[in-house]
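so my prof wants the structure for this chain in the tokens format not the other one, which i didnt know existed until like an hour ago. anyway here's the sequence
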Amino acid sequence: MSETSDRIAAAWRSAQSLPLFMTQAEAALDYAFQPIVDIDSGEVYGYEALLREVEKLGFRAPRDVFDHAHGIGCLAELETLLRRKAIAKFSRMKAVEKTKLFLNIDARNLSATDDMLDTTVAAVAAHGLSPWNICLEIPEIHERLAQDDLRNLVGRARDRGFGIALDDFGQGYSQLRVLYQYEPGILKIDRFFITALQNDARKRLFVSSVVELAHVLGIRVVAEGVETPSELRACRDVGCDLVQGYVIARPFTDLGEARPSYPVPTDRPLRSDMRKVAERDFLEREMVKLAAISETGSVAHALEIFQANPHQTILPVLNATGEPRGLIREADLKSFLYLSFGRDLLLNPTLDNHLRRFVRPCAVADINAPLDRLVDLGTEDFSDGLLVTRAGRYAGCLLAGSLLKISNEVRLQIAQDQNPLTKLPGNSAIADHVTRACAEPSRDRAFCYIDFDNFKPFNDAYGFRIGDRALILFAELMKRRLDTLRAFVGHIGGDDYFVGLEEWTPDRAGRLMAELREEFARNVESLYSPEHRRQGYILAEDRKGRVQTYPLLSCSIAILHIPTGLSIENLDLLSNHIARLKQRAKAEPGGVAVATFGADSEDRSAVDALQKTAERLREAL
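here's what i got, hopefully its the right format
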């Protein structure tokens, strides 16, 4: 058979199967919805529509359905059909007017932008919704020719009021350029970077950098595919705004399962919660509620707002849901007004004088963001200030003076949380670290408590100045040896120090601490007189005034290993074990004592009690 005959036969088969395929797709396919929630409050922001029941058509995955439709020449028709089904089902959900529906777009159908958007507008209107209820997830584009189609899609979608999300960020090759060119309102970080985020320093660096970049552009960040509380905590720590995944809720097809909010797992210590409340109160006092304008407003209205508020130099621009889309500087409008016929051009309704021409990107942060992150987001001279949101919606603005106050507050907090002599984190930070690590059962943890031996006689013999030099020497040694190992290093006070290690076995932690102890013993000899170094001891009075012989300075180290799979909420159990372990370390010839929590009889009974309590809680739930 000739090539022409093959094409004719294929076309005939497609024509025969297309109506049947579309009929079957409409009857069989369904949509599930997975919630996307605020990472702090759990309030639902939107739902992603996920295709289901593809097996009824003989396909293994949703992608196969679209591939088949593309092969038989009905991809556009199928997308239109399925988009209508998703919107119709979404419209039946309670409180739908406050949430968004995230719809994926197939890159192969970008050339049909106008038809796709028009049918979507019609479907939205038919079910009593607005375009801002819909967020279109733009795909990764590889072909240069398709970039023009993508630009056309984003521009026309925005003109109609649809939201734009960049999906699976980090998976494709051109997404950084898309982020720069199109400034989507939502950025969804690919699941690859979220998996085990808490255990991967490189991933944390990447994600935190992406989040910071997005916030500077006024973009909210969704962590996709979050499955464990550990991943959720890591996503919160790096600044993600929204979360989607099994840790919150699985996709559901029954609309009765939808809730206005979902519980968000958290293990923040009480002290951290108190600080968070104090920081939020501080922001509330410093924040000003500047007048804002809708992104569909006119330039004339913007000028009226500036005239009515003579001290206001920036104008927040919001979409229909109250989310910031950028800001307008008064100076930009004024510079245009000063041109010949500038005011006439701006106010002429027959010309294209949309606000969009004057909207600038701006830094945006949530009211729950830590103060130090707000300082990082502020521009170098703080000229534009910072827009603050609550659950994604505009709450106010932090102007230059307020950002400077916040910067000073951050520096004060850092000073309060560190030891004034060694500049290491102090007791509050150490307590937070221990509490968080104890509640994280997905990996091995080790707590190392370090105490100088015979420090008081040394301090009495050489004076406080030399004593402080010994403390600083040890702090610098720890920084040099441990900073590259992702260790948490703290100064409890006096001659007591703390080291927190993650993913370290007991033997490995013991070897590390023994090496640290030996290096300190060698280095600290330089603080002694030549005579004391030669004889290897000093003579000093004990607490009862009796002259005693004391060896040169060294330290004892107690290492408590918390094994994978064990979480500890009762820190009194931990303190009791550490106290016993410190006594053991003092008696050990090598000065290092290592133990695994739960390995001795006292710990086993405590662990059993913890497990029984956890089982009772699970049964109650």
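also thought this was worth mentioning. Residues 8-13, 616-621 have pLDDT under 50 and may be disordered.
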